[in-house]
């Protein structure tokens, strides 16, 4: 007979990998649905807790979904099936599927979202962009927001952006670049998800290029204006903007492997990384005229 862990065992293991205490104060992480006593045989990993992922979990017979993004970030008065989120909760509970969220705690962790993104694009000698423990607490040395490191071989911004595009899942947005494509880049900062609040840290780290998602016009424009004013057109940091979903997706494989490894003594689970692309953007119409 094969032993399977309980949901409580799985939650304990996930909390060891991604301690809830390292989540941002505004975040909402942890177990959303599920009975701690229920056995867990199959775990599906996905970026977003959305209807298509619930479909996939139900079709596959999953007992648990682990997502990066929270289903509920703010308090709610009702989970009646009259709303899209309430309906999702009903479907999961009816199917006996737990939902567990590891968000900013998974961003910060060793082998978390930022590390997985950094590995996917080949960053070595790296450390957190904003360490969780700036005072140097040893157990948190590898924990913090984003990562900064170097490429094994300096390359052009163009070749680097192409590498990023090849390393991440395909999205309609693709990869947007701000800067001189022929400039040389070596030091790279990455932040999975929306990263335009970290520009000061990126500049302080001396990054030649910053890979993140959801960059808006004004922050991006001002960052490049300042860089060109101070360092000329070849001056960094340059920007590589990827789809939010794509920037966080590489972590799912790490989470699946690390959960399986840590549970080995408790029991076996079958894991799967969702194949549903939950990036909300479904098409891109190229501009008709190029200046
Ligand atoms: Zn995100």
UniProtKB/TrEMBL annotation:
Keywords: Metal-binding. It comes from the Bacteria. Pfam families: DUF34_NIF3. InterPro entries: DUF34/NIF3, DUF34/NIF3_sf. Belongs to the GTP cyclohydrolase I type 2/NIF3 family. Homohexamer. This is GTP cyclohydrolase 1 type 2 homolog. It comes from Oerskovia rustica. The lineage of its organism: Bacteria, Bacillati, Actinomycetota, Actinomycetes, Micrococcales.
């Amino acid at each position: 007979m094969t032993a399977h862990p309980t949901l409580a065992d799985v939650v304990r293991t996930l909390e060891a990998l991604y301690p809830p205490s390292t989540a941002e104060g505004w975040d909402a992480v942890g177990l959303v649905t599920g009975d701690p006593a229920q056995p867990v045989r199959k775990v599906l990993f996905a970026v977003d807790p959305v209807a298509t992922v619930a479909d996939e979990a139900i079709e596959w017979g999953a007992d648990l979904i682990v997502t990066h993004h929270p289903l509920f970030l703010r308090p709610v008065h009702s989970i009646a099936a009259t709303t899209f989120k309430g309906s999702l909760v009903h479907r999961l509970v009816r199917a006996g599927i737990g939902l567990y969220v590891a968000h900013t705690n998974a961003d910060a962790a060793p082998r978390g979202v930022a590390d997985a993104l950094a590995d996917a694009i080949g960053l070595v000698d790296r450390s957190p962009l904003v360490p969780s423990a700036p005072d140097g607490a040893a157990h948190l040395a590898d924990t913090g927001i984003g990562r900064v490191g170097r490429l094994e071989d300096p390359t052009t911004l163009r070749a680097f952006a192409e590498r990023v595009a090849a390393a991440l899942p395909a999205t309609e947005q693709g990869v947007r670049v701000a800067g001189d494509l022929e400039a040389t880049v070596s030091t790279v900062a990455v932040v999975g998800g929306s990263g335009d609040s970290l520009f000061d840290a990126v500049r302080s780290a001396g990054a030649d290029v910053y890979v993140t998602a959801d960059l808006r016009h004004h922050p991006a424009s001002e960052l490049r204006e300042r860089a060109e004013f101070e360092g000329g057109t070849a001056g960094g940091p340059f920007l590589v903007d990827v789809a939010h979903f794509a920037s966080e997706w590489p972590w799912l494989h790490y989470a699946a492997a690390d959960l399986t490894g840590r549970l080995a003594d408790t029991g076996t689970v079958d894991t799967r990384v969702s194949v549903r692309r939950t990036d909300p953007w479904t098409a891109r119409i190229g501009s008709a005229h190029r200046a």
